[in-house]
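Researcher: Structure for this, please.
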Amino acid sequence: MFLEDNLEVMVEKVGSEIVTLLEDKSQDIKKTLSKVKTRLAPYHQSKKPNSSKASKKKIVNAAEHSLGSPCERPQVSDESTTISRPKMSEMNLLDLSPLKSLAYSLFDHATSYDKKHSNFVDKAHKDKKMELLSNAKERLELFRIEEGEKGKHVSSNKKSLRKVKRKLETLQGE
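Model: Predicted structure, token format:
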């Protein structure tokens, strides 16, 4: 029920905006818009609309004005109930330079954000790599020190073992 109410409100708003834009046009166009407005309201139902060509209406924007205007006159044809949009080359309705500059600005900001984010990620990755390398160097130094101590201990054990062997040989020789 909530969706149906919202849909009806949206259709009424769109219909009223179209009517206010075209209120200086002929009475025929107002009748057509009211037909389109009443046809759009029940689209939330599961029933399919009548598909015969005679029952369908199509609103097509006519390109009668060479410069174009926001209030172009729609024409009615008997093909479908969709509202077709004119090609951009036919429209020439708006000065798109502010929109283009806004889009370029948006993409520039997105690119700079991506670069900053990428630099941050790269820096964090390098920092992590440097941390791992420093940890590995510390462990290597500790291993070398430990190995040196063990080597000294082994060499002292070898010396003491040699002394014991000499004493044993001297005792056996006596």
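Researcher: Any notable elements?
Model: Confidence is low (pLDDT under 50) at residues 39-47, 53-70. The radius of gyration is 43 Å.
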